[in-house]
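Work Package 3 (structural annotation) set out to generate three-dimensional models for the target panel prioritized at the project kickoff. During this period the team completed the workflow that converts sequence records into discrete structure tokens, so that structures can be stored uniformly alongside our sequence database. As a representative example, we reproduce one entry of 184 residues exactly as it appears in the project archive.
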Amino acid sequence: MDFGTLDFGTLSFAPALDAPELVAAPVRAALDGSAATDVYAAAIDPALADTAAFCEHYGIGLADGANCVIVEAKRGDSSWYAACLVLGHERIDVNSLVRKHLGAKKVSFAPMEAAVQLTGMEYGGITPIGLPESWTLLIDESVAAAPMLIIGSGVRDSKILTSGAFLASLPGAEVIGLVKRQEG
């Protein structure tokens, strides 16, 4: 789906391929030469990169964005990293759903320093686009179903607008339920 140049909240988004300076180097590398026609970027105030402040300032609902969380999984002497993507108003179920899906004995949020070093992105801007190819990328079903949503760009001074379908097509992506939902 091609959204064209568009406004969302109070932001104006341009095609990310036309504004490579707005995304981190690993994101640029992942988008370079791709057919990422539904990936857009907009500059923001880096002091407002965190979800709640960003949404309030730019007139965007929490459900219109997704957060990328890096986790460290452990089993025996082995440890590995994965990324999880959930809507901004939902809480990821790390200790049950993510742990079981990754086949880990223990899963915890990755330390900030490790997340930054391993992704090559800024904390508060980490995005699923351009993550290490060996990582599993778990995407919540509600994210994959979104026609468009806002995610990090790898840096704190911009955001990306894209479709859930594009995110579900990323290398290593698996669409599963990551949030405990109330039944009934």
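The mean pLDDT is 92.
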